[in-house]
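Backbones bend. Shown next:

***
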Amino acid sequence: MRGSLLGRRTATRLRQVAISAVKSAKIKLLLCCCVLFAFFATRTAPFLGWTDHADSLNSFSGSRLYYRRGYALLINTWKRNDLLKQSISHYTSCHGLDSIRIVWSEPNPPSDNLVKFLTQVVQSNSRDGRQIELKFDIHEEDSLNNRFKELKDLKTDAVLSIDDDIIFPCSTVEFAFSVWRTAPSAMVGWVPRMHWIEKLFEGVVNSNALMPLCHCSESCYLSERSSTDVSGMNGNGGRYIYGGWWSVWWTGTYSMVLSKAAFFHKKYLSLYTNEMPASIREYVAKNRNCEDIAMSFLVANATGAPPIWVKGKIFEIGSTGISSLGGHIERRSECVNRFVAEYGRMPLVSTSLKALDSRNIWFW
């Protein structure tokens, strides 16, 4: 009797284990099918007639934008020909590149050897019907404003502003370009920065509890605008402080992306040259600093929206720049407050959004 009961219990448990194993196998098989379907769907989308709607654009200054495919590489350089050669050699291998514009502000024109080398590099990568244009924009005056001089003969709407000592993998560049195409009025870049109210910043540091100045929302933006007067002070009784990378890292909040590595629409070159207050350009030229902050102010003032920070691998191939010098934060903070006074308000808008390429991460 007991042996029979034990046998029935054992059989019941074996059936339960078998059923559980079958269910588990079915779930795993279903997951595998989903993964395979997703993989083949991305590969065969063009053949199935699926269309990419990333080309639909937002409005810019009240009118519809229709961007031309590809982007122009606007690269700033100063007496670092080896770095320039290395950068151009890399970016010419990126498929979205349409043209290269080199901002040349040195007292002497580019050497024949440099021009010949870069021309050969461009020609060697201009294949499969793709012709990359190379042009030096030579300026008589040595000014940081030169990197944003209007370029009337650009064939593309998208501009990738880059320093000669920064290298991004082509996949990273193409992803950022795809992000920009969804919001062509925004600055899309890899190097985020933040602005703080000095009084709040001091309280945050003393309390060891960092809090973002303002998140991207309509009510917050309007509140920030209305609390700022033309003296560079704000309704909270403090000046603004420029926050470096550590401020962004700690809070996850930013209000600028630096133009040393960013996409923006070519129209901003015209606005910087012709519409932005001349006093700001004069300040940039005199102090040899903050042209990137000036561009961030200009775009934010035109759009009333924050920039977009894109995650990506960054390789810096040059030596340390002015950001490593003493007093850097103080000088940049002075720029922020000066520009606030020029605009009569704080146009920068803070956000905590970050664009990630979900194809390269497991959890998103």
Observations:
- The chain has a mean pLDDT of 78.
- The chain has one domain: 71-207+238-360.
